[in-house]
Design a protein that fits this description.
- Helix content is about 15%, strand content about 30%.
- It has about 550 residues and is of the alpha+beta class.
- The chain has three domains: about 50-320, no CATH class; about 385-465, Immunoglobulins (Immunoglobulin-like, Sandwich); about 475-550, no CATH class.
- Helix 4 packs across helix 7 (about 350-370).
Length: about 550
């Protein structure tokens, strides 16, 4: 045999071996999606039939032979279930990391009772997503809402109670204020309400009247119960007739509108007024962007078309009456909050504190949005011990303002805080918050103590290190273009030196997803040794609302 033939055979064997080792590519979400247009980064990924694709992906990932990894982080912290990857929750292929939603749910039920109607899952690392978040029904036993009757709960580890599962994305892509509208027309609260509402909406068989692609139709009037200038969390606009055939649309998601409450089983048909919609609409302004008929945009629209009214009787004619009706529909729900972490990784205190804030706030927001007609309990029904979750303090710089929280979750609020040991001069501690301007360098070990209203207590030993400023040893540690998340770009700086570095008026520039990004770091900003500075910037100049220090890009 010629030498070239040996080489060809050798390369063929190597290629075959590498292909055998390479994980098979996971079937993409959206395979059975009826609508084939692109799902944009800041969109909801829910579509009719997503539960079938989720189940297929779960079976595909679960069939791959893997070694089970030891875990030490799977436990409840307060009312948040931490689930550590044991080798079966995260799948990696050429497209990156993927979460096996079904495996996560099954792991959860290994240590928790079948007491939950919904699971809301966050993670703390980057992974492939279809849209920004999605919800899928695990089962449906309701007639008249445009969905078939089915039950996949056993495949999710539930004995029959679990109704739906939401993948709410990376907790580090959520802003601290749960009511701040950052993503399109949504805040974290309206986004969570939106995904949960996909258990019932919007699947009615009234296309281009009230429904388009599993959301309320952009050209129907969905003024919500949160005020005259708010729209349903399930999309749509407030439409105003300006006369002369010009109709003006505006969207700002907050709360629900009567049709939402009807499909939930909270409103009788007689409580649903006629719904205004525009037939055969043509957008006249703006004309330079695509206006989807299923997602609202944070801009003023102008359109022409033929106005129409759709009555609840029309909806019932197309879908059947909602059953169970308000006399028998479920009105008290339980939801579990889960944080998935990679194997061997410990969740950060600020991540847990953010989820805890969202968890508590969502109970109140759901109750208010349903007009006090339904409740959402987010307790895990465990002992709920108090636990301080901050495990380290970021460093401080001599002569620069410093602010850092010591976070606790669980127990019964309010918490009272105290300390043993001294912080540097110029710095004080009160109500879980360290603040001030240090006037001396050094390392300061301090024990922080939290006591809750039921007299539970917890302590943590931390060290605050104050460094003098010195020569810059800042490096660009990581750069990511997060097209999936509509936050443009993530720029991560890292101080690899042993002195704090002053960053006043430093300018960061990058060609982001939406164009050139420029950010001038504000005066008074510094980076302590071994600290990270992460900037999430959407586009333009100084538009970021996500400048934070002390965290790594996961």
């Amino acid at each position: 045999m010629k030498k070239s033939s040996f080489l060809t055979l050798f390369l063929l064997l190597i290629t075959t071996a590498l292909a055998a080792d390479r994980p098979e590519k996971l079937p993409a979400l959206g395979a059975s999606r009826p609508e084939k247009d692109k799902v944009l980064p800041n969109d909801c990924g829910t579509y009719r039939g997503i539960e079938e694709d989720i189940l297929a992906r779960h079976q595909f990932m679960s069939a791959v032979a893997k070694a089970k990894l030891p875990t030490s982080q799977t436990r409840d912290i307060g009312n948040i279930a931490i689930i550590e990857d044991d080798g079966f929750l995260i799948y990696e292929d050429a497209d990156g990391l993927h979460i096996n939603d079904g495996a996560v749910s099954n792991r959860f039920y290994q240590t928790h009772p079948d007491s939950f109607d919904f699971i809301t899952m966050f993670r703390n690392f980057d992974a492939d997503m279809f849209g920004f978040a999605y919800h899928f029904q695990v089962q449906n036993d309701i007639f008249g809402i445009g969905r078939p009757i089915f039950d996949n709960s056993s495949g999710m580890g539930s004995a029959g109670r679990l109704q739906g599962f939401t993948n709410q994305n990376d907790i580090n892509y959520q802003v601290d204020d749960p009511h701040f509208h950052m993503y399109r027309i949504h805040s974290t609260m309206t986004g969570m309400l939106h995904e949960t509402m996909h258990q019932w909406a919007a699947f009615l068989d009234n296309p281009n009247q009230v429904v388009n692609q599993s959301h309320w139709y952009s050209f129907c009037h969905t003024k919500s119960n949160w005020g005259d200038s708010t729209t349903s969390a399930m999309e749509g606009y407030i439409w105003t007739d300006n006369g002369g055939g010009d109709y003006q649309g505006y969207a700002y998601a907050n709360g629900l509108f009567p049709l939402d409450l009807y499909v939930m089983g909270l409103y009788d048909p007689a409580q649903v007024p006629d719904i205004w919609y525009l037939k055969n609409p043509t957008v006249t302004s703006p004309t330079n962007i695509y206006v989807p008929p299923y997602y609202a945009l944070p801009i003023e629209l102008h359109a022409t078309g033929t106005p129409n009214l759709l009555s609840i009787d029309n909806i019932i004619d197309s879908n059947g009456v909602r059953f169970p009706d308000t006399s028998d529909s479920q009105k008290a729900f339980n939801m579990a909050f889960i944080l998935v972490v990679k194997n061997g990784e410990v969740p950060k205190g600020e991540e847990l504190a953010r989820i805890e804030r969202f968890r508590q706030e969502f109970e109140e927001y759901f109750y208010a949005s349903t007009e006090s007609l339904a409740t959402m309990n987010t307790s895990l029904f465990g002992s709920n011990p108090l636990e301080i979750v901050t495990l380290e303090l970021r460093g401080a710089a001599l002569g620069y303002p410093y602010a850092e929280s010591v976070y606790a979750v669980g127990g019964t609020k309010p918490y009272s805080w105290s300390q043993i040991g001294s912080l540097p001069s110029g710095v004080s501690f009160a109500d879980g918050f360290i603040s001030g301007t240090p006037t001396a360098t050094g390392s300061y070990p301090v024990t922080f103590i939290a006591v809750d209203a039921a007299s539970q207590d917890d302590t943590v030993n931390l060290v605050l290190t104050v460094s003098d400023t010195g020569q810059s040893e800042i490096v660009i540690n990581e750069l990511e273009l997060w097209e999936r998340y509509n936050v443009g770009a993530g720029i991560e700086l890292y101080n690899k030196g042993d002195s704090a570095v002053q960053l006043d008026n430093w300018v960061l520039e990058v060609n982001g997803v939406n164009g050139r990004i420029t950010y001038t770091i504000p005066a008074g900003t510094y980076l302590a040794p071994t600290d990270y500075l992460v900037l999430l910037e959407s586009a333009g100049t100084n538009t970021s609302s996500r400048l934070f220090i002390g965290e790594d890009i996961a």
